[in-house]
Design a protein that fits this description.
By secondary structure, the chain is an alpha/beta fold. It folds into two domains: 234 residues, Putative sugar-binding, N-terminal domain (Rossmann fold); 169 residues, Four-carbon acid sugar kinase, nucleotide binding domain (Molybdenum Cofactor Biosythetic Enzyme, Chain A, 3-Layer(aba) Sandwich). Helix content is 41%, strand content 20%. The protein contains 15 helices and 18 strands. It has a 15-stranded mixed sheet with strand order 9-10-5-11-4-1-3-2-16-17-18-15-12-14-13, with helices on both faces. The chain has a three-stranded antiparallel sheet with strand order 6-7-8, with no helix packed on it.
């Protein structure tokens, strides 16, 4: 059975974020980790999101992996392709958003695509091409301190123009205010001028609905998960998508509760602090990890003791920018990150084998490391915890019940996310 939407996400939490919004809008959704080697049976699935680790890798690798995902999704009959990146547009002047978008356009024969990163319900909006996080410009929001892709410019037309070879244009708010047809005509006019990428202003859900109406016939759209939430209504209007009861229904959860956090975003730091006011936690230090095995073994011992009572328990490498910079200065940015990811991946593999059945992971890179360590290849998407973050379930070969797993982007979730996540899980 052909799927309606095939999505390519540049990190694991971003994939789950998009899948969450698709489910909330009535699509039955499966997330796959990496590009499957074979077609899948998708009789009860409307959308598939392929999760890659292509946000911060070399450009050539990101393009190669994304094109492989595109080929697989086309083989599954996807009507439309969605390239999903973060609502903070974090990338470098070399990519990877621009180069990947252009590679997908070239493969699809698409002369134009839209760039709609905004997610207004989470405070990510775009006005006159400038990206805001809450009431702050992107480069004043804390994203200027991102350890991998620091963002020092909020003007997305300017940011993307440094990455892309095709001209970049803007669909400004006054155009969107005229509705979907007017926006479509504006896109057509820009395409005739040779504009390949169009940044879309977006202040609210109505703007997203207008963009979705204007682009439903495009072979490729790009953006954040907000656009993903708006598209299913257009698919239903086209007759491509039927109404489904409980698209996010999952099996009952079982097992002890664990949180692993590697994100150093402001939101996650607040969530760690809130959790530690109510539950136990153990901090990982990259410098100590570099010295040998003892630091990981201490974290394992700490977690086992607390998990014996059911948890939840937290193991975290989240730290303020000064501590992160100190570790990076001593170890190098790449090695510091690799040490943390490897440690959290090992902890996940060992503790899930010992009975953890409910697992929350914070941070895109951390989520990638944990999912890889657990050998997870597919995730069925369930109901939402907070905007952008659903519970998911993954079958594991050596256990009867599926693992309940929440993959949280660093910037997402309220202060009590880590504690409330387990309260809303059936």
């Amino acid at each position: 059975m052909a799927i309606v939407l095939g999505a390519i996400a540049d990190d694991f939490t971003g994939a789950t974020d998009l899948a969450n919004n698709l489910v909330r809008s009535g699509m039955r959704c499966l997330q796959v980790i990496g590009v499957p080697e074979q077609p899948l049976a998708l009789d009860d699935i409307d959308a598939v999101v392929v999760a890659l680790k292509s946000r911060s890798c070399p450009v050539t690798e990101a393009v190669e992996d994304s094109l492989a995902a595109l080929d697989w999704l086309q083989g599954q009959g996807a009507r439309q392709i969605f390239f999903k990146y973060c609502s903070t547009f974090d990338s470098t002047d070399k990519g990877n958003i621009g180069p990947v978008s252009e590679a997908l356009m070239e493969r699809l024969g698409a002369p134009q695509t839209v760039m709609a990163p905004a997610f207004p319900i989470n405070g990510r909006t775009v006005y006159q091409g400038h990206l805001f996080v809450g009431d702050r410009l992107l480069n004043e929001s804390g994203m200027q301190h991102h350890p991998l892709n620091p963002m020092h410019d909020a003007d997305l037309v300017r940011v993307l123009s440094r990455q892309a070879s095709r001209p970049v244009g803007l669909a400004a708010r006054p155009v969107l205010a005229q509705g979907g047809e007017a926006t479509r005509r504006h896109l057509d006019a820009l395409r005739e001028q040779g504009v390949g990428h169009v940044i879309c202003d977006t202040l609210d859900a109505q703007d997203l609905a207008v963009i979705a109406a204007a682009v439903v016939d495009l072979s490729l759209v790009t953006g954040g998960s907000g656009l993903g939430q708006a598209l299913p209504a257009q698919y239903r209007r086209q007759g491509w998508l039927a109404e489904v009861a409980e698209p996010g229904r999952l099996a009952p959860a079982a097992g002890s509760a664990l949180v692993l956090s590697g994100s150093c975003s402001r939101a996650t730091l607040g969530q760690v602090a809130h959790f530690l006011e109510h539950h136990p936690g153990h901090a990982l230090d990259p410098l100590a990890l570099a010295e040998g095995e003892d630091h990981v073994q201490a974290a394992l011992a700490f977690a086992r003791e607390r998990l014996a009572t059911g948890g939840p328990v937290l193991v975290y490498a989240s730290a303020d920018p000064a501590r992160v910079q100190a570790a990076q200065a001593a170890l190098g940015t790449e090695r510091a990150g690799q040490l943390v990811e490897a440690a959290l991946g090992r902890l996940a593999r060992q503790l899930v084998a010992e009975g953890v059945g409910r697992l929350v992971v914070a941070g895109g890179e951390t989520s990638g490391a944990v999912v890889s360590a657990l050998g997870i290849r597919t995730l069925r998407i369930g109901d939402q915890i907070d905007p952008g973050v659903p519970w998911t379930q993954a079958p594991l070969a050596d256990r009867g019940a599926p693992l309940s797993l929440a993959l949280k982007s660093g910037n997402f979730g309220g202060p009590d996310f880590f504690t409330r996540a387990f309260e809303v899980l059936p």
